[in-house]
User: What shape does this take?
Amino acid sequence: MITISGLRLSFGDTEVLHGISTRVAEREVVCIIGASGSGKSTLLRSMNGLERPSHGSIEINGHRLGPGEARADLEAVRRDVGMVFQSFNLFPHLTVGENIALAPRKVLGIDRAEARERAEGLLAKVGLSEKIDAFPGELSGGQAQRVAIARALAMRPRVMLFDEPTSALDPEIVGEVLSVMQGLAAEGMTMVVVTHEMGFAREVADRVVYMDRGRIVEEGAPEELFGAPREERTRAFLGKVL
Ligand code: ADP
Ligand code: MG
Assistant: This one.
């Protein structure tokens, strides 16, 4: 589903990704871990065309993003890829239902009734049916993040990207968001998740990628990476977070 080849990415004169290559198979769940500033968000954003490679390429579901202009591919990738951020980014002046229905109506052109129906189905899935006419300001952080997930799913993406989706939440409500994500994984959604939740990575990921200073240091099945890391840097990082 995703092939990243020799990806380098710079902000101005500063290169922050120094040649990343990896693949994500259809239905695979990959967790990316690593210290702050190691390039996790930049890598994830590049998979949605929010950052452009300076060298190398990213191919998603057959569409290639490289250093050059390719508007059609960029639009195709944005349709195929849903993204959920740490800060939920819901539109405060729209109801929950309208937040979810907006992109399907504007981008896919589906009618109001069908968009509402899609929103109802997705809210049931994330356990928030009763909130369809609420405004984002009336939701807890965990509820807002579940709405953000439903909103991303409304475009029926082939891939879902999550950038620290629980980092802004109080500890007691982290679980409700993780369990929605676990449900998605169980349904076979292809997912890339940047997270500090090592329990989630261990339980749900098919593969864990450890990044440091703009490079992939090590990747493997969770039992390998957590149980028997090969690299000294991985061991040092895990020693601090586990
Ligand atoms: P992480 O998500 O692992 O904390 P980031 O991908 O956010 O790391 O950042 C990687 C590096 O790129 C950091 O040194 C950060 O300061 C830098 N960086 C990120 N975004 C920008 C930007 N828009 N402009 C300049 N530098 C940036
Ligand atoms: Mg980040």
Remarks:
- The domain at 2-239 is CATH 3.40.50.300 (Rossmann fold).
- The two ends are 31 Å apart (CA to CA).
- The CA atoms of residues 218 and 231 lie 7 Å apart.
